[in-house]
Amino acid sequence: MIVRTLEQVAGTDRDVAGEGWRSRRLLLRRDEMGFSLHDTTVEAGSVLRLQYMHHLEACYCLEGEAEITDEATGIAQPIRPGTIYALDQHDRHTLRVESDLHLVCVFNPALTGGETHDADGSFPPSEPPGE
Questions:
Q1: Does some domain include residue 93?
Q2: How much is the pTM?
């Protein structure tokens, strides 16, 4: 059984930040759950252009407001508390944050821990477990 608090993760190698965002990674590949689970915050005014080429991601909004745009279709959707969005097709998307956003995010395959976004808004591919 794994029991871990956000306070235990803060300030460790599981606490990763970039321009306008912070991801506290509660579960990682080394936890052997088959996915990673992150407590993520994104600052108001941030505009993130992302595409996870090697991962699928689902995010559940706990707090804040944003708009997510599917770059393939141009369709924009509001993100508010109680909203989930799932990037099930490695979707290129833009997240425009109106007020500080608090998300719970799941990645498959699981992240290893230190990943930050590449120039194209992606994370590098995860190596299979055991490598």
A1: yes
A2: 0.87
CB count within 10 Å of CB 91 equals: 19
Domain harbouring 99, CATH code: 2.60.120.10
Number of structural domains in the chain: 1
Could you tell me if residue 64 is inside a domain? yes
Give the Cα separation of 56 and 53 in Å (integer): 8
Residue 69 lies in a domain: yes
Segments forming the whole domain that contains residue 53? 13-108
Please enumerate in sequence order all residues whose Cβ is within 8 A of that of 36, keeping only pairs 6 or more positions apart, or say none.
Answer: 25, 27, 28, 29, 106, 107, 110, 111
Give the tens place of pLDDT for each residue, 16-39: 999 999 999 999 999 999 999 999
Residue 61 tokens read as 């909004």
CA dihedral 106, 109, 114, 115 (to 10 degrees): -90
Instruction: Say what the pLDDT of residue 53 is.
Output: 83
pLDDT tens digit sequence for 76-111: 999 999 999 999 998 999 999 999 999 999 999 998
> How many CB atoms are closer than 10 A to CB 6?
10
Whether 20 maps to a domain, the answer reads: yes
